[in-house]
Write a structure and sequence with these properties.
By secondary structure, this protein is of the alpha/beta class. It has 16 helices and 7 strands. Strands 1-7-6-5-2-3-4 form a 7-stranded mixed sheet, sandwiched between helices.
């Protein structure tokens, strides 16, 4: 579940101050990994992967192959992946899923348009010619519209079971299950890009995975470090950790829209130490100007 402005605002300066470090520094650690991260990454890099524009749907062997490669890359760092996959989305997420589905369908428009032109002109005396720009736009369009089918997910799960890889299914979304695994001592950390992993109590969260200088690197949120009394990261949540869930609700998330004007300034008191904003408040504007406060 995504939480609006969580990484950038709710965690204060953590994102800018936290440096990337090698994933291999955590060799031997059991890390719960949201399988959807691996799948979505593979969808964006595989030109022949299954797309929402394909009809009929079919098993995408290239997607499974990419998952295998990603697994090999992760294990070469020495970590022990524990994969967790989503279950059913709660009813509260219905609107967000419909919004994403609409964006997915719209993303493939350029590809579908060119594809239909080619079909309509298949028997033409003069073959239709597409420019390099049109082909590029169509390819990018198709890439953005990709999504795995139940066939793809079944293939991936069958491969994991056959390889004896440790994997767990969640009743709802993977993040809640991964936090439970960490709390029960089954894993040493969590790899996820969703803020609710932290809001739900994740202790060690690996995010922003990338390759730098030939190494896999990431940023690692460590709750004990974040919650130090010195409040290094200038976040209200360091001082009031019990409000973590409240902030997630007030800022808005995949389950519920943000309440009008409940932006980082109102919810978190962001920029409360800014003298210009303070002067503006004293002059009758409780939130300061939009320029002083940033996004409201």
């Amino acid at each position: 579940m995504g939480i609006n402005d969580f990484w950038i605002d709710a965690l204060g300066d953590w994102m800018s101050l936290c440096k990337h470090e090698k994933l291999s520094n955590y060799a031997g650690k059991r890390i719960a990994i949201d399988l959807s991260i691996i799948i979505n990454k593979s969808l964006r890099t595989d030109i022949d992967r299954l797309s929402a524009t394909c009809n009929p749907t079919y098993k995408c062997k290239d997607l499974l192959q990419n998952i295998i490669v990603e697994h090999q890359v992760l294990t070469k760092t020495g970590i022990l992946p524990v994969y967790v996959y989503d279950g059913m989305s709660p009813e509260e997420k219905k609107k967000e899923k419909e919004r994403r589905r609409a964006l997915l369908e719209k993303a493939g428009d350029k590809y579908i348009e060119l594809r239909q032109q080619a079909i309509d002109n298949i028997n033409a005396v003069e073959p239709i010619q597409f420019s390099a720009k049109q082909l590029k736009e169509a390819t990018e369009s198709r890439m953005k519209s990709g999504k795995p089918t139940p066939n793809d997910q079944t293939n991936i799960l069958k491969w994991m079971k056959k390889q004896g890889l440790e994997c767990y299914g969640s009743l709802l979304e993977a993040d809640q299950q991964m936090v439970a695994l960490e709390q029960d001592g089954i894993v040493d950390g969590i790899m996820s890009e969703d803020g609710d992993t932290i809001a739900n109590g994740g202790k060690v969260v690996f995010c922003k995975l990338t390759r730098k200088g030939g190494y896999l690197t990431c940023k690692v949120f460590k709750r004990d470090d974040f919650m130090k009394d010195c409040n290094t990261y200038n976040s209200k949540l360091c001082t009031y950790p019990e409000l973590m869930v409240d902030v997630a609700l007030l800022l808005g998330n995949d389950y519920m829209s943000r309440i009008h004007k409940n932006g980082p300034v109102m919810v978190l008191g962001k920029y409360a130490n800014n003298e210009a904003a303070e002067d503006s408040r004293r002059n009758g504007n409780p939130r300061g100007t939009r320029q002083e406060n940033g996004l409201i």
